[in-house]
Specification:
There is one protein chain. The protein is mainly alpha-helical. It contains 9 helices and 7 strands. The protein has one domain. The strands form 3 sheets. It has a 3-stranded antiparallel beta sheet, covered by helices on one side. The longest helix is centred in the middle third of the chain and has 25 residues. The N terminus is likely disordered.
């Protein structure tokens, strides 16, 4: 039995949080243009809540997940990434959208580990797919130039990456192409879970195990609140079926939430959350999920 406290926050530079989490068209993201490393902390058991196609959902972003992986002490490994030069290989709308999400996670990963030149390559790969999908406004020349000027500023890079994906999502929602936005989100989630499972093969820490375990609820959200709406769109039904198989493994995980009254400090104006989430996941299920995620990812990236 592994226990995860809601107080277990990770000191990260994920100040912008939702790299791929959607806003409604009339809810433009409000972000400080000069974010700082201490702006926020990634909380695995309290993922941000958003709205997508009029449904409330809670999906941790690739940057949020990636920051937990980075803070877990895992070394940088570019072999885990999808190759940036494969962008031209994706011929269908579904594969282009999914891999745009995957590249988004790769972007976050390379940036979190300060590999600036690789970040730039993945930004350019993302732009290629965005152009094909008709959302080039999100990755225009001005954005690329800003990224090139800020390669040594991690916080600014994360802001620019997050803002680009937000703009892409805004564009898709306004133009009733919401299924493409959903596929981008799912692609980023798949890549992030692949990272965690792959790192867990070498060092299955409590944090990594809990990260995987908490995705049980995330996958339910993806299937039951997002993809279910778009089964008639090309490529979505096949993806839904593949994820249903992965859900069967997640069903073996038991998650229990224990509420405890928060402790308020009026003098210092702080609130301490004392509730806990307990995750029970066997090593066998952890490995099984990792294998299934890897097989699905291979199918997507070709």
């Amino acid at each position: 039995m592994r226990s995860l406290s809601l107080l277990e926050r990770y000191s990260t530079i994920a100040a912008l949080g939702l790299i791929l989490t959607a806003c409604t068209p009339d809810e433009k993201p409000k972000v400080d243009p000069t974010p700082t490393a201490d702006s926020t902390a990634a909380d695995l058991s309290n993922p941000p809540v958003g709205v997508y196609d009029n449904s409330i959902f809670s999906i941790p972003s690739p940057i949020q997940l990636g920051s937990i992986i980075a803070n877990n002490g895992a070394s940088y490994d570019n072999e885990m990434l999808n190759k940036a030069n494969k962008a031209d290989m994706y011929a269908t709308t579904a594969s282009q959208a999914l891999n745009l999400g995957i590249y988004g996670a790769d972007l976050g990963y390379t940036t979190l580990y300060d590999h600036q030149q690789e970040s730039l390559r993945y930004m350019r790969a993302s732009r290629k797919l965005a152009d094909v999908l008709g959302i080039s406004e999100a990755f225009d020349d001005a954005t690329i130039s800003q990224i090139e000027r800020n390669l040594d500023n991690k916080d600014s890079l994360l802001y620019l990456i997050s803002n680009s994906y937000r703009k892409a999502d805004d564009f898709l929602q306004i133009r009733e192409r919401k299924h493409i936005g959903a596929l981008i989100i799912v692609g980023g989630w798949i890549e992030s879970i692949y990272f965690a499972a792959n790192i867990g093969k070498m060092n299955q820490t409590t944090e990594i195990t809990n990260l995987i375990g908490m995705q049980k609820h995330t996958l339910e959200t993806i299937l039951d609140k997002m993809l279910i709406k778009y089964l008639d769109e090309p490529g979505v039904k096949d993806l839904y079926t593949d994820l249903e198989s992965i859900r069967e493994s997640f069903e073996e995980i038991n998650i229990e939430y224990t509420y405890s009254t928060p402790v308020h400090d009026k003098e210092n104006k702080t609130t301490e959350i004392t509730s806990t989430t307990t995750i029970d996941i066997s090593d066998e299920v952890f490995k099984e999920i990792g294998v299934k995620i890897e097989l699905l990812r291979k199918k997507i990236i070709l």
